Amino acid sequence: MKSIFCLLLSAAAVAASAQTPAANVDRESQDASRRGAIERRAAEAAAVAASPSAAQDIPFEKILAAPGDLDLNERFAREQINRGDLRGAATTLERILILAPGRDRTRLLYAAVLYRLDALQDAERELRIVLARAAPAVVIEEAKAYMKLLEGRRRKTHFDARVSFGYGYDDNRNSAADSDKNLFFGVPVLLNPDSRRQDDTSVTFSGALGISRDFGGAKPQKAFANIAYYRGEQTRINALDLQAYSVSGGFALSLRGFEFVPTLGFDHVLLSQSTYLRDVWQGLRVSRRIRPRVEAFADFRYEDQQFVRTRLVPSAENRTGGQWDYGVGARWVATPRDRIGLTLGHRRKYARAVAQAYRRESLGIEYTRLLGRGMFLAAGLTGQFDRYDRPDLTLGSQGRSDDALVGQLLFGAPLNLLWKPLAGFTGTFGYERFRQTSNLTNYEYSDNRLTAMISYKWGI
Amino acid sequence: MIKTLAAILLLAPLAAAVPLNIGVASAVRGAVHAVAPGAAGRVVETGKSVYSHDKVTTGPEGRLQVLLLDETSFTMGANSEMELDEFVFDPATNAGKVSAKIVKGAFRFVTGKVARRDPASMQVKTPVGTIGIRGTMTAGTVGDSEALIVLLGPGPENNADEKAGGITVSNDKGSTEVDKDGWGVSIKAGEAPSAPFELSPGQLEGILSGVGSAPKGDSKDDAAAGDTTDSSSGQGTARGKDNADDAFAALDAAQGDTSRFASQQFGAPTTATWDEVRGIPGGTGKYSGSGAYYNCTGGTCATTPLGTTTFAMDIDFGARTVGGGSSNISLTSPASFSGTIGSQSYANMTGLATMPLSVTSGTGNFNGTSLKLLNTGGVTAGAATIDVRVISSLSIPPLYGGPVTGSLTTP
Fold first, then answer.
1. Cα separation, A455 vs A376, whole angstroms
2. Looking at the partner chain, which of B153, B243, B250 has a beta carbon nearest the beta carbon of A119?
3. CA–CA distance, A413 with A418 (Å, rounded to integer)
């Protein structure tokens, strides 16, 4: 019944609007005989706008009542943008431009909204109109910047590259047991000082190159390939110097509302300059928008992990074997600024030494807050629960069960907010808390990690 | 819910008798007229209501945007005609139905709440086919016997968290889906819709200029002044998502899992002390390993591998001995040496767990070979490194050698 009232009220509002049209209507669109009435309505609308409720959200009924009020529409469009209704904002801005086509800033905003909606043909047309006008220099400058972005997005082949330099600190880089003891044949043995908890700093570098190519067909489908390199140099514990080369490629295919992303990849990891892991993997992600702001996904990944014995890790080969990961989850765009993700995972790790094989159940939740002007704050919490297949008799006859909790906090900001010439650079600061409990004292430990990183990204 | 919809439907006969307001002419330029069934025609101005079953026409300079109660919008260019067939909307649930017919001219529509809730609830007809909606911005031109329809967006790369748009254009001869922005279909009377194709720039401009607005005269100052478009469009905020994704990609590249695994599972190997090894009260095990050997003539070993060294060495933690039993070491091609590792006690050793190794051999002299026990993987003495030195028993160079590490296994 309430619905009926709403419907009737809406209809009544429309009916009323026939008697109370626009204020601040662009005069170009009106003839002189209507001018008096318009000015009266403008005064009424101004009174409404000046009322205390004007600072609050503008109800749609108000727009229906005064669709020709350009300033009201402009404010309404911004509200629509702020709450993520970009399609609605496009309609509102289009309305303003029908009534007042000379509003170049509004047209630029309209183009930007269309660009964000990936309605590129529409956006390009509006930008060209702005660029052909004698608009203020700042408007022209912004229009050119959007045109450049737009031209980049319209390319069928995209390249991007990213480099990052960072510095990190761990307060337990060697993951030493909290107890300073390790089990050996069932007996706790006191670790020597070198094997106890050691903090360390590290310098990191990573670089990545990516290419993607739209197939150009009727469906939005593309192929992509990436190559990445990572290097982390420890200050003291050189045995944990890490390098990784990764190559991957795949396709993003849309079919009946689903997106399929099959990927193949290869990782080569070096520990202290020696090959430590070669890993050929294949993955498949299937995702689908199940609600306007909710995307559900399922992940599958199989890794053929070949661990290589090194001088420092002579038993590495014991870990050689396949690893299967399955995950399901959802991402919810709660507001245009707030994103929440939830993932449930299962892992089955096989190993040459059965004592190194395990099952993992995991649950992760992450939250990202977009702070505006390219800044973000991300937080994550993941629980991992590992159950090993058999006891490691070197340690004792007891089976191994590890429960780990990982908390992460990451803040990032474009550095040109501090200094304009740093456009393209992003600074990130992160904190990670890792805490693992285990029924074997060897594996009960914690680590606190702080990282700072500067990244630069190119894209064409 | 059912009651509500039923109540709305009950209004239909009333609506037939008294045209129901379904929205507003939200922007009008030039001459626009409307006529409701059984009523006289009327001039449409900005802010005037539109009614169900209205037939709306625009003149040679006319432009019109109609905004329906569910926020669906239709925009019409000059010399266009549209009929608002049917509109049912429950604001509480956004359920309803939107149906319109574009009789001729250029048009654009943006779907509203009804189509967002259930895309099948909205249909836009033309004389030659019907457009079914999947959350979308669509435009086109319609003539008496043909139509050109294009999907404008939202595209799959939108950063507005919008589902990518799509349309299905159909008539009694066939049906075509369009899933990509800038692509469309053409339809001719009596024929099935064409396969989807990418519209040429000229075709797109023809449609967009027909329905879009074009300024005349000077640039006008407006309310957006003083604010950057990046900020007001939300693009700056959306860019934060890209930055976050990039940051996570950079962190992923760090192989964090592998790094932690390496340290957690194996620890950074360090040389054990004899006290630590003696702290293990009992049990037996065997170190076994293989690795390259090198030319060590001249005191230091070269870096070019020559052949393979393998070893197996027993350890008895209870008796506090290494070697003995079947413990052995051998070097293969190009050299060919082998020897047995004798039993040695560490009961009274002090300091780091290193010792010269006693190897007896009929073919080589292993003098200078040494043993080092390592704490690794959280295991005291979990690995052993044997630094080999071997020369022909006749003490004739070359001298071979180099460190080989093996891990501990238990029986």
1. 14
2. B153
3. 9
ipTM of the predicted assembly exceeds 0.85: no
Q: How many other CB atoms sit within 10 Å of the CB of residue A243?
A: 20
pTM (global) more than 0.80: no
> Which neighbouring-strand residues pair with A274?
A271
Q: What is the 3-state secondary structure (H, E, C) of B365-390?
A: ECCCCEEEEEEECCEEEEEEEEEEEE
What's the CA gap between B126 and B100, in Å, rounded?
Answer: 9
- How does strand B122-126 pair with strand B95-110? parallel
Q: Closest Cα of chain B to A101: distance in Å?
A: 4
Q: Are A120 and A214 in contact (CB under 8 A)?
A: no
Residue in B4, B157, B198 closest to A4 by CB: B4
Q: What burial class does residue A421 get, using C-beta atoms within 10 Å of its C-beta: 0-12 exposed, 13-18 middle, 19+ buried?
A: exposed
Helices (H), A132-176: 137-154
Cβ partners under 8 Å of residue A268, min gap 6: A244, A245, A246, A275, A277, A278, A279
Q: Is-contact B67 B23, C-beta < 8 A?
A: yes
User: What is the spatial distance between Cα B344 and Cα B324, in angstroms, rounded to a whole number?
Assistant: 8
A68 to A93, A95, A144, A311: CA distances (angstroms)? 12, 8, 30, 77
Q: Which residues of A touch B255 (CB under 8 A)?
A: 230, 242, 244, 267, 269
Inspect the interface and report whether the beta carbons of B229 and A109 lie closer than 8 Å. yes
C-alpha gyration radius of chain A: 29
Q: What is the pLDDT along chain A (460 residues), one digit of tens a residue?
A: 444 434 433 444 444 444 333 333 333 334 444 434 433 443 344 344 334 344 458 999 999 999 999 999 999 999 999 888 999 999 999 999 999 999 999 999 999 999 999 999 999 999 999 999 988 899 999 999 999 999 988 888 999 999 999 999 999 988 888 998 878 767 776 776 767 889 999 999 999 999 999 988 888 889 999 999 999 999 998 888 989 999 999 999 988 889 999 999 999 999 888 899 999 999 999 999 998 889 999 999 999 999 987 777 777 888 899 999 999 999 999 998 999 999 999 999 999 988 889 999 999 999 999 998 889 999 999 999 999 999 887 777 889 999 999 999 999 999 989 988 898 899 999 999 999 999 999 899 999 999 999 999 887 6
Cβ-defined contact of B405 to A314 (cutoff 8 Å): yes
The answer to whether B92 and A6 have CB atoms below 8 angstroms apart is yes
Across the interface, of A34, A106, A237, the residue whose CB is closest to B222 is: A106
- Cα–Cα distance for residue pair A438/A385, rounded to 1 Å: 10
| Mutate which: B233, B242, B287, B388, vs A, most A CBs within 10 A | B233
